[in-house]
């Protein structure tokens, strides 16, 4: 239950909304675009979510972009849906962002947080703006934790709920490792969380507990999963949409031709800007547009 985290004495009047976002890259080509998925909770218990998915086409000869260009439109749609379901907008937003390397942290701060803030300004009008916490979720790293049995000398996985936030984390940053799941086989991999922006003012224990609780609300599993539910849903939405033939058949001829020559592609790779990226939101059937 999320009640302990969302209805404490300091937050009983707060209305929380949780976002999850991920970008999946198939290959650097115009035929198979990058898929950006943004997921948002739509109910007061933060267990029902809706998704918005879009395609991002890189410029010819350029690498794929990790930033979600259409985040403003996607977050606007999800905030409107939240208001329709609950009769009000949230005053606290917690945004979990997956798949961002260390070198892109500043770009995410510059664009995605600003896009989310601008979406809130456009919708809230003269009302107080919500407070935002933005967290990067990193699964791909080489850190592992073990517990040594003093009797046998064997090394075992750490227990679910183990937090490591001292000694091996960034000396100035707000980051922590959380092992929220029990490995059925093999070595469990903890998840590294970087809190890039915290307007809500969570303490370390509060954001760690909240993240751990969200790992229990995934509908695909009766136990705790390794990452918070909105991040897992975003990954699933992006992965499933990657195989959908949703773009026009003639897009190859209208958007720059074929990319069979890999050598030419590699030679012309360079930095890419948001202006060079063409995007298109994927329109789903209305019956499933606002469900997962």
TrEMBL record:
Q: Which domain of life is it from?
A: Eukaryota
Output the SMART domains linked to this UniProt entry. Piwi
Which molecular function GO terms apply here? nucleic acid binding
> What Gene3D superfamilies does the record point to?
Ribonuclease H-like superfamily/Ribonuclease H
- InterPro entries this protein is in? Piwi, RNaseH-like_sf, RNaseH_sf
Tell me which PROSITE patterns the record gives. Answer: PIWI
UniProt xrefs under Pfam families: Piwi
Outline the extent of the Piwi domain.
Answer: 1-246
Report the PANTHER family cross-referenced here. Answer: EUKARYOTIC TRANSLATION INITIATION FACTOR 2C
* Protein name per Swiss-Prot or TrEMBL: Piwi domain-containing protein
Q: Which organism is it from?
A: Rotaria sordida
Source species taxonomy: Eukaryota, Metazoa, Spiralia, Gnathifera, Rotifera
């Amino acid at each position: 239950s999320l009640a302990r985290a969302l209805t404490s004495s300091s937050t009983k009047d707060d209305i929380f909304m949780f976002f999850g976002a991920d970008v999946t890259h198939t290959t650097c080509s115009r035929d198979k675009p990058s898929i950006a998925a943004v997921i948002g909770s739509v109910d007061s218990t933060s267990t029902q979510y809706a998704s918005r998915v879009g395609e991002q086409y890189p410029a010819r000869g350029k690498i794929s972009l990790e930033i979600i260009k259409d985040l403003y439109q996607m977050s606007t749609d999800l905030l409107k849906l939240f208001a329709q379901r609950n009769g009000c907008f949230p005053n606290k937003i917690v945004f979990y962002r997956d798949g961002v390397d260390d070198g892109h942290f500043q770009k995410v701060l510059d664009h995605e947080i600003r896009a989310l803030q601008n979406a809130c300004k456009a919708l809230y009008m003269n009302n107080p703006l919500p407070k935002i916490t933005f967290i990067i979720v990193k699964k791909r790293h080489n850190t592992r934790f073990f517990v040594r049995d003093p009797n046998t000398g064997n090394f075992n996985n750490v227990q679910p709920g183990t937090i490591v936030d001292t000694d091996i984390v960034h000396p100035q940053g707000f980051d922590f490792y959380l092992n929220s799941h029990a490995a059925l086989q093999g070595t469990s991999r903890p998840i590294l969380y970087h809190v890039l922006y915290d307007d809500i003012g969570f303490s370390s224990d509060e954001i760690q507990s909240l993240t751990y609780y969200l790992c229990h609300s995934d509908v695909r599993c009766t136990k705790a999963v390794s990452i918070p539910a909105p991040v897992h849903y975003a990954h699933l939405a992006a992965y499933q949409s990657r195989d959908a033939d949703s773009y026009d058949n003639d897009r190859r001829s209208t958007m720059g031709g074929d990319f069979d020559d890999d050598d030419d592609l590699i030679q012309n790779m360079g930095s890419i800007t948001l202006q060079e990226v063409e995007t298109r939101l994927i329109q789903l059937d209305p019956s499933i547009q606002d469900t997962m």
